[in-house]
Write a structure and sequence with these properties.
Radius of gyration of chain B: 27 Å
Structural class of chain B: mainly alpha
Structural class of chain A: mainly alpha
Order of helices and strands of chain B: HHEEHHHHHHHHHHHHHHHHHHH
Helix content of chain B: over 70%
Strand content of chain A: under 5%
Oligomer: heterodimer
Strand order of the largest sheet of chain A: 1-2
Helix content of chain A: over 70%
Strand order of the largest sheet of chain B: 1-2
Order of helices and strands of chain A: HHHEEHHHHHHHHHHHHHHHH
Shape of chain B: globular
Number of helices of chain B: 21
Largest interface: A-B, 62 and 49 residues
Number of domains of chain A: 2
Number of helices of chain A: 19
């Protein structure tokens, strides 16, 4: 027991990795599903234990193979990444039971074990990015998660999934390349790849090598920005989310972009922020401007979008804008708002995409026009959708409101009142695209194609209801979300110059 | 028994089991909820309840004092009348929405802090829009959407204002706010939108006439009165409110006179009645405040009564267009009678409720020597009599006989109207009991000889004017027409302007981005073209443009950093 307790950081990554390898050899999809289920349910246990360790004993440092950092690879868990690890693993665990039915519909039986293999590999990569304290190791995990994501998207039943995956591959590769160029520049300047060590060494190198360091920050920001779908680098996302298998979209929307955001936060605050006075560089203004553009333009695209899944995808781009906005604000309330929205948006969007997947499961279409009156036929599904949709708008009593509260407070603290106004104004657009669908779903007479529709089986419905309930629960009790996000923000900002 | 969180919660949580009930059980349940909330309020002493903490903020979900209690009673009465009126209805959505709506209105008036107020402010909007959408027509959908955007917009202004207020004062308590700080100004605008201040008013005439027969009755009672309460709480004695209110009483008159849709006429007259309350709050003396809140109570009852009467007509005949109605008194004698009681109340006939409440505001204006305000209010009173007191009953039930014959309204509607009518007469005839409930200390006697004679003269001359205008054919005939109000500017002009700007921007955009993207990477495009053929829609986002943007961003960042 005590041995496992000490080795939790590596178990977090190695378990899904071994699971992926094992799944590749399995013939029957049922056993592969069982394996994935067990692994994904173990993950939040480990992540929870790690968070407990951090809360009680401060940051955890794990040296791979016993090599001392900065020469060896270090896994370093502090409040921020324990928080992200728990989010990703918990959402993966909650939605895993729904995978079976959803995947049965969209992927042939003989390819299913390989699907679970790819999912576990993707989980490995995402958890790895979040846990590692080594900049190059993060690149490796980034590639692991990206490559498996391309495969997962390409497994979508529609032929357009192939093209969407291919385009994501091109863009994602450019993003990863940019990231590795940035890391390479830093290595040239400092001679280290360990993030904590980088933070120490960038400061002294600034005098002589400021141009290289600025360029490194630029490459890393743009490269990671591609992965997290920072506007206008978001163009890969809508189609990838629309044509991927429904369940894959649920998982990716709650995890992939969130981990990329984590990586940006880590570099921005822990590495560069603690070494250089970031106020000298335009990067915060840059991020805030792009975030505001995302909040408005992507939301407007969502309003005019006829496909439910793509509408939600555009909404994701807009919501990511809120997160990056909070990060760009660089003050306690703002960063808290950004970090807490990582979790809040993860929950809400997973619920929404899961509901869309349930609709697809039952009526084989997600064209909004064909879903008139779906609320009467699938009342529980649509009730959960409505709750999560209200969260997107930021209705009080839901998690979305908590995020908005902190973001607006952050903007006011900064003295940027017009920005505070823009934040609340943009939620009116969310109101329009959510309200548009709710009216169609609840107030119309059921369309002809929906005669057979009914709520999905329990394995899909239960995760959906859990996520919707979490949207409300964490809107009222914020100790676990905003509480930890606030502490994480405090330590991030406290370390800045 | 006492309040744990807020009396509104009984109705909001009580709405949850409604879909599971049916038949008589459901009817009894729907009536029991408002009665229960009323009993709870009677049983609760003044004080603060429901102190709780929400993400580090201290909240007071229920503050019971004279002012909130008075509005609480008014809202429970409205909820009960609305429930009786809607008993025949099988539409679960409307029952649930109605209960949540009434409950959140109650929650808002008992809110002891701004965040709780905001919470219920938003819930009011979200619940009430379903009463409009439940008409299930395309117009109702669009009007509902506009209503929702305006209402949520008001909520967001409130949120922004309360955050600024919180940032400034460190407190969320909902007491007097005033216009001194930027936060106070934003909150004022938020209240003003919901209270339908001039130029912010169009959502009301736009949305209410599209609501369902039963939904509009509730709509007329809650949304705007919550705003009146909030103004009374936060901005009593704010001088700016006097001119705003005076304009509100006067300008809707002209629109009401030429409007053909009788429910829209009522919506305009709602606007005009709100003006009296706003003026009262602006004057801010105890008599004026009492007048404002008393008039809010009276207006809730008589406006609900008038909307119920018009709703009954719509329910039976299928239209409330003045041009298509007339002579209905033969078919609907009871409805006609109740409508006349409502019309008499809104026109402030002695012995009816409007008389004993509106005169308080006018007396308060007189006491302070605000002559011009008084004159405007006087003109508005005459105008009300014109369009609401005479026009509504005359065109619907008398006038030229349209030949339409229908059955009398259903029994539950008649009972609801009967109760409302009884209240109107009761308040007007025995005002002492009603005055005893008022939150502020002030002595007032409405039935002094000069009051009565002045009002009767006013009504007489106004009636004479209507008669002469009708006889001579000068009175604007009831025509099928669309009247342009201020919302034309943002609905039509705004849309075409936005369209023109958008097209212009799009053209430049295409020229710029298209050329640049094409130049940057021909190779990628060539690869893409293989996939572009074969039925895959070309509208999918091009890889080249993504690469283009990546380059632009990096270049822009580096340029900004280096120079």
């Amino acid at each position: 027991m005590s041995a496992a307790w000490l080795h939790l950081p590596i178990l977090q990554v190695v378990l899904p990795l071994f699971g992926a390898i094992a799944a590749a050899f399995l013939k029957r999809s049922a056993s592969a599903f069982a394996l994935a289920l067990v692994v994904s349910w173990l993950m939040p246990v480990i992540a929870g234990a790690l968070l407990w360790q951090v809360l009680t004993g401060g940051p955890v440092s794990y040296h791979l193979g016993g090599w001392e950092p900065p020469w060896g690879i270090e896994y370093r868990v502090d409040l921020l990444n324990a928080f992200v690890l728990l989010l990703i693993s918990a959402i993966g665990a909650v939605i895993m039971p729904a995978a079976r039915r959803s995947i049965d519909l969209e992927i042939e039986a003989d390819r299913q074990p390989r699907f679970y293999c790819m999912f576990l590999l993707c989980l490995t990569g995402l958890l790895g990015i979040a846990i590692t304290g080594d900049a190059f190791n993060a690149f490796v995990f980034l590639e692991i998660s990206s490559l498996s994501t391309y495969v997962l998207i390409a497994l979508g039943p529609d032929r357009r999934a192939l093209l969407a995956a291919y385009r994501y591959l091109i863009v994602g590769t450019i993003g990863a390349t940019f990231y590795v160029i940035g890391v390479g520049l830093l290595y040239l300047v400092t001679g280290t790849l360990n993030m904590a060590d980088l933070a120490v060494r960038i400061g002294p190198a600034w005098e002589a090598q400021s141009r290289a360091i600025i360029a490194a920050l630029g490459f890393i920001t743009v490269g990671v920005g591609l992965k997290l779908a920072l506007f206008p680098l978001h163009a890969w996302l809508p189609n990838a989310y629309t044509y991927a298998p429904s369940w894959v979209t649920v998982f990716l929307s709650a995890s992939a972009t969130k981990v990329a955001i984590y990586l940006l936060v880590r570099f921005y605050f822990s590495v560069f922020g603690s070494a250089v006075d970031l106020d000298l560089l335009p990067v915060a203004t840059f991020i805030v401007a792009l975030s505001v553009a995302a909040m408005f333009l992507a939301s407007i695209s969502a309003v005019f979008e006829p496909n439910l899944k793509r509408m939600l995808a555009y909404s994701s781009v807009a919501q990511i804008g809120y997160i990056t906005l909070g990060i760009g604000l660089q003050n306690q309330a703002g960063v808290t708002g950004g970090l807490v929205h990582i979790v809040n948006h993860g929950m809400m969007k997973a619920a929404l995409f899961l509901a869309a997947g349930a609709v697809l499961l039952r009526v084989r279409t997600v064209r909004i026009a064909e879903l008139a009156g779906i609320g009467r036929k699938m009342p529980w599904t649509m009730a959960a959708f409505s709750v999560a949709g209200l969260g997107l708008i930021g209705t009080p009593g839901t998690t979305g409101f908590v995020s908005k509260w902190y973001l607006v407070l952050g903007a006011i603290e900064r003295g940027w009142w017009p920005l505070a106004f823009l934040i609340v104004a943009s939620s009116v657009i969310a109101l329009v695209y959510v309200g548009r669908f709710l009216e169609i779903a609840w107030m119309r007479e059921p369309a002809e194609g929906l005669a057979e529709a009914a709520d999905p089986p329990g394995s899909v419905l239960l995760p959906l209801l859990i996520l919707a309930a979490a949207t409300i629960y964490f809107g009222l009790d914020t100790a676990l979300t905003a509480g930890i996000a606030g502490q994480a923000a405090q330590s991030l900002l406290g370390g800045m110059r | 028994m006492s309040v744990e969180l807020t009396p509104g919660l009984i109705l909001i949580l009580g709405a949850l089991p409604v879909p599971l009930l049916w038949g008589r059980v459901r009817s009894i349940y729907l009536l029991a909820l408002p009665v229960l909330a009323f009993a709870l309020m009677l049983d609760t002493p003044n004080g603060v309840f429901g102190q709780l903490e929400l993400f580090g903020l201290q909240l007071t979900t229920a503050r019971v004092d004279g002012l909130s209690r008075f509005f609480g009673y008014a809202f429970v009465v409205a909820a009960l009348l609305g429930a009786i009126y809607a008993l025949h209805l099988k539409d679960t959505v409307q029952h649930v929405a109605g209960l949540v709506y009434a409950g959140s209105a109650l929650g808002a008036v008992f809110a002891g802090d701004l965040l709780t107020l905001f919470l219920f402010w938003e819930l009011i909007s979200l619940a009430s829009v379903f009463l409009i959408w439940a008409s299930r027509t395309p117009q109702a959908y669009r009007a509902g959407m506009r209503y929702l955007v305006v209402q949520i917009g008001s909520g967001l202004l409130l949120l922004l204002g309360l955050l600024l207020h919180f940032h400034e004062t460190g407190s969320l308590a909902f007491g007097h706010i005033g216009l001194e700080s930027p936060g106070g100004v934003l909150i004022f605008f938020a209240f003003g939108i919901k209270c339908a201040f001039p130029l912010l008013h169009n959502w009301l005439q736009d949305a209410y006439p599209e609501g369902t027969v039963t939904g509009t009755v509730l709509l007329s009672a809650f949304t705007t009165k919550v705003a009146v309460y909030a103004l009374a709480r936060g901005y009593a004695g704010t001088e700016l409110l006097v001119p705003i209110g005076a304009v509100m009483t006067a300008f809707p008159i002209f629109y009401a006179v030429i409007e053909n849709d009788l429910r829209r006429v009522l919506a305009y007259s709602l606007n005009n009645q709100l003006g009296f309350m706003v003026v009262g709050i602006g004057i801010g003396t105890e008599l004026a405040m009492n007048g404002a809140v008393a008039h809010a109570f009276a207006d809730i009852v008589f406006k609900a009564l008038l909307f119920m009467a018009m709703g009954a007509v719509l329910f039976r005949v299928g239209t409330v267009k003045g041009s298509e109605l007339g002579g209905l008194y033969k078919s609907m004698p009871w409805t006609t009678g109740f409508c006349i009681v409502g019309a008499a109340s809104i026109s402030a006939f002695p012995l009816f409720s409007g008389f004993v409440t509106k005169s308080m505001v006018m007396s308060a204006a007189m006491e302070q020597d605000r002559f011009w305000v008084w004159i405007v209010l006087l003109f508005a009173s005459a105008g009300v009599f014109h369009h609401a007191g005479i026009k509504i009953p005359y065109f619907a039930f008398f006038g030229h006989d349209s030949g339409k014959r229908c059955r009398e309204a259903p029994l539950n509607m008649l009972i609801a109207m009967g109760l409302a009518a009884a209240l109107c007469i009761g308040i007007g005839s025995l005002p002492e009991f009603f005055y005893a409930l008022l939150p502020f200390q002030s002595e007032y006697h409405p039935y002094s000889p000069d009051h009565v004679t002045a009002q009767v003269q006013l009504l007489f001359w106004s009636a004479l004017a209507f008669a002469i205008l009708m006889r001579t054919g000068i009175y604007p005939p009831e025509l099928l027409s669309t009247n342009l109000d201020f919302d034309w500017f943002y609905r039509r002009l705004g849309r075409s302007a936005a369209g023109a700007v958008g097209r212009f921007a799009a053209r430049i955009w295409q020229a710029f981005a298209g050329a640049a993207a094409a130049q940057t990477s021909r190779i990628v495009e060539k690869l893409g073209s293989h996939y572009g053929s074969g039925g895959i829609p070309a509208r999918m986002t091009q890889t080249s443009s993504m690469v283009f943007w990546t380059t632009v961003l990096l270049a822009a960042y580096l340029l900004l950093s280096y120079f």
